[in-house]
Amino acid sequence: MAVAIAAARVWRLNRGLSQAALLLLRQPGARGLARSHPPRQQQQFSSLDDKPQFPGASAEFIDKLEFIQPNVISGIPIYRVMDRQGQIINPSEDPHLPKEKVLKLYKSMTLLNTMDRILYESQRQGRISFYMTNYGEEGTHVGSAAALDNTDLVFGQYREAGVLMYRDYPLELFMAQCYGNISDLGKGRQMPVHYGCKERHFVTISSPLATQIPQARGPGYGIMSIRVDGNDVFAVYNATKEARRRAVAENQPFLIEAMTYRIGHHSTSDDSSAYRSVDEVNYWDKQDHPISRLRHYLLSQGWWDEEQEKAWRKQSRRKVMEAFEQAERKPKPNPNLLFSDVYQEMPAQLRKQQESLARHLQTYGEHYPLDHFDK
Amino acid sequence: MNLFQSVTSALDNSLAKDPTAVIFGEDVAFGGVFRCTVGLRDKYGKDRVFNTPLCEQGIVGFGIGIAVTGATAIAEIQFADYIFPAFDQIVNEAAKYRYRSGDLFNCGSLTIRSPWGCVGHGALYHSQSPEAFFAHCPGIKVVIPRSPFQAKGLLLSCIEDKNPCIFFEPKILYRAAAEEVPIEPYNIPLSQAEVIQEGSDVTLVAWGTQVHVIREVASMAKEKLGVSCEVIDLRTIIPWDVDTICKSVIKTGRLLISHEAPLTGGFASEISSTVQEECFLNLEAPISRVCGYDTPFPHIFEPFYIPDKWKCYDALRKMINY
After folding, report:
1. How many CA atoms lie within 13 A of A94 on its CB side?
2. CA Rg, chain A, in Å?
3. Which ipTM score applies to this complex?
4. How do residues A275-310 score in pLDDT, each as one tens digit?
5. What is the pLDDT of residues A62-100, one digit of tens each?
6. pTM of this prediction?
7. Range of the domain at B132
8. Which residues of B does the annotation mark as catalytic?
9. Domain count of chain B?
10. Are B134 and B198 within one domain?
């Protein structure tokens, strides 16, 4: 028995083996039998202390009956750098970003906003089948993108186009994806706003959401967490920068909960007045918008003015309209691209299906919109 | 009523006569993204019509739980494309509940409703027809209506059926044609296919939206080829009505089955396999399957992907000339 316990100490067995089981492991040669990967906290088994012996638990006993309130979690404070008028609150938190970078943040958000307006309208006109705007959430996109390296791989959800905008994804390619035209990197396969770009390290968007939600808050999963004001670009920037630095240095995950508000409807298939008040939406649009707050900061720094604002609005609208008109004129990809990339190599059965479509179109082609597709 | 209204009517009837009936899912409280639950929360209260978090596994898991207590659980999965996080709950829990407990327990009062099928621009994640995945699972029933009148009767049967049911609603039909639908409850039996048009030369089988496609193909066949088609709506995928299909094939000798879902492993393969077992000597030609291709459902290529009337007509023509 003493030998077994000593052996257990040497091998750091801590998976709750019973005494009886330990008795079987008398010989050092049985080392390989019950080896387990030690968890982060290693405890040597001992029945001598009156502490909980549950493997992996580091809590104390308590003799008072008390439930933990979930409200404790929702009381996590929200980190911010700027107030709602774009003024720095605590100067030591000001990231002191250079003018060009702040202008890039501002122009990315506003160009995205302009593109959103035009493309939302184009869906209403039947030019594209579907669209989702990013109104109100632009700050979370660009603040985080700016704090990452351009080569950091981003897995976005469907309302994170600002990351791509910040990474200089061209308007032509945004439009190409929405129109599903021949320039679309995604080969026309997905609904609009499902962008992806290998060179910009942005993994292609997919629709399903529940497969991607962290099912619990960070502390519940034992993950280092912070909550930030998502409409404060500098707060998002600072938090992301620091989280990235530490994640790489310490090899552990960090969760940033960027609080923001979706000002637009969920999509062109949604009318959100059915489930929320117009007053609420207006509050966020007028009183706490990431673009306005950053603009106030720019103005107070003397880096921007009304004239530049007017000129930029005109220019960005023109750029978007040009890209839009071009995208609309381009043909759709060849229908053969319906069949590729299911696997890396095309299975024989699928090739037969591809051939049968080709034959079918030879006879019945007049009934299909072949004129819009690349030959 | 149109199809979404007939669904609302069925749900209204259920909540009116069954005090244990509750409806839950994402966004059902305000009326649902397809308007199927409009007015029900106001009428029956927030304890009976309520939203769930965005978590399909939880929606079905919760539904199973309350069904086990005996309540009538009517769960909504917002798009059939999103049912997969709940797959484990459906296959390993709901479907096996009665069997594994030796009939001590069951979740038969669970019905899961979900919008299904192509819609013109839904692409990969708003167009899927996943009935084949569930057809492989003994213990559940899978039902798909073709019209408002059918939808209400079939949905009421699912809700009242003593087995967990999945009811797929063709979303492209929600606002399409309206027809006369009684306000009072009525039932259409499950596991009974319907011969919606009699014929003598070819049997055409489909379900949901595709029934309308094959009905049109039957007209084309009559007009262009002088061929008489028997058109059958399968209605219940499992347990399916083998007898009606076989009886028809014994008469006609030719069978064409069509569905949007991909060809390989699609439900047409089950029908085809069974029919050749039962009706081998009656067959005049190989059984034809006109289905979606073995790819994810594409966006811009949808017109080329779907098993439209031209593909069905062409396959029929080849069968006649075999």
Report:
1. 15
2. 28
3. 0.92
4. 999 999 999 999 999 999 999 999 999 999 999 999
5. 888 888 776 655 678 999 999 999 999 999 999 999 999
6. 0.88
7. 3-173
8. 56, 126
9. 2
10. no
